[in-house]
Every structure is written in structure tokens, then in C-alpha cells.
Design brief:
The protein is of the alpha+beta class. The chain is built from four helices and three strands, in the order ββααβαα.
């Protein structure tokens, strides 16, 4: 099973980083259910900007922590650089 680190942009243009095994389901949860993170529930809708896959949860969580240490500018540069194994379409 693959694990993913993802970054979404909230309606207030803030960025949220998370980890999941199913990005589509998680984005749906952020936008439509009570399973959304408390942070994103009040900032709907969210838009997927970035995702990267990892072999296991530990690797994904380590990368999530690294991304959360970045400034907003560094996160935006990461998103725009395409520095991801599987970057989300920015359509």
C-alpha cells in the first residue's frame, strides 16, 4: 500500500499538509464531511496542489514533518518546482 503526502490550498489561500493512503477520498473528506481536519473544515473548499507517494507511513510522515517546517514561500516553490514523484494536476 502506498502512502501520500499532500498539500491543499484552502479558501483563505492558506496551505494545509497531510498524509493519507487515498488522496481522492481525503480531499472529499476535507470538502464534504465531518472527517475533515478541524483546520480545513472552516476553510472550505480546499484544492489539491501537490502529492507525493511513499512506500510506507513512516516515510510519508517524515516528509510531512519536513514540509511543515518550510515557510509558505518554500512550500509554494516546492509545488511549482514539480519536485514530486506524482504531482497533482493544477487544473
Amino acid at each position: 500500500m502506498s502512502w501520500f503526502v499532500y498539500i491543499v490550498q484552502c479558501s483563505d489561500r492558506s496551505l494545509y499538509t497531510g498524509v493519507t493512503t487515498d488522496v481522492e477520498r481525503r480531499i472529499h473528506e476535507h470538502n464534504h464531511t465531518t472527517k475533515a481536519a478541524k483546520y480545513t473544515r472552516i476553510r472550505r473548499p480546499v484544492t489539491l496542489l501537490y502529492q507525493q507517494s511513499y512506500e510506507n507511513r513512516q516515510q510519508a510522515c517524515q516528509r510531512e514533518w519536513q514540509i511543515k517546517q518550510l515557510s509558505r514561500g518554500e512550500k509554494l516553490a516546492l509545488i511549482q518546482s514539480g519536485d514530486a514523484a506524482c504531482q497533482a494536476d493544477q487544473a
